[in-house]
Design brief:
By secondary structure, the protein is of the alpha/beta class. It has ten helices and 13 strands. Helix 5 links the parallel strand 5 and strand 6. The N and C termini lie far apart (about 40 Å).
Length: about 325
Amino acid sequence: MKTLIIGGAGYIGSHVAKEFLERGHSVTVYDNLSSGLRENLLPGADFVHGDIHDLPGLTQTMRPGFDAIVHLAASKAAGESMLNPEKYSRNNISGTLGILAAATETGVKNIVFSSSAAVYGEPEYLPIDERHPTNPENYYGFTKLEIERILGWYEKLRGLRFACLRYFNAAGYDAKGTIRGLELNPANLLPVVMEVACGMRKELLVFGNDYDTPDGTCIRDYVHVSDLAEGHAIALDSIAKTGRSLTVNLGSETGSSVTEIVETARKITGRPIPARITERRPGDPAKLTASAALARELLGWRAKHSDLETLIATSWDAYRVARSVN
């Protein structure tokens, strides 16, 4: 299919573009490079340097006709969203409305949307499945849930088919080394661990070690970015062939604690990775893990590369090469 990947120069987006190209899709990346990187643009993909807030430019880009859009353009730091909700309203909600306006104008009928497990909020039970109540605890999660609801209305009113993919914690890098552009100002645990290992940061802050978990540190579900990329491609195939929209979790269905990640990273990198225990962060649940049973049932998707060793080894390889670390 002819596919427009909005945000396709970013960390997840570049891996999605790679997956689509390898599957034979025609790919155009649309990115303003605010967080995406030119070095993540892949041979074989067209590139348009544009912004989702430029509705005429976005519409003009879509005018030649696309079979589908993959929407990965969003601000994504949960903590920042609580301090600057205006930024998240503009980039996530208003930006998506612009994308949908351009899609309606140009007749695009399929969209794959990068959603988030943040739509669920504090877990009422584990593992979290798609029937779990949606009650976001941060404004970022609220914006993702609102976009899902908007897509539901566009399906009713405009015949738009959508796949909402609720990621858990994306991590890792392309094992073949095709994508080497590192995330800018990462806030997630694994890239921060890598930055400490590379000497880019002095130490890792561990927010609490007195949780009700085996080692006292928080447990999270980490899913390899290449598994996520495959999920986008399979989801698009599904909605295009069946004409039915879907909303599914994409997670590894296993949990790794902060301590497990740090200890495994020390073994793989051979670096000391200093870590200092500090106070808990408000709103951090002890444990979050996904059920991806619905993705298996509807898409035949399962996480294949999301074991902790692969997540850390592929991340270290990318950071080691990018930072010329021996």
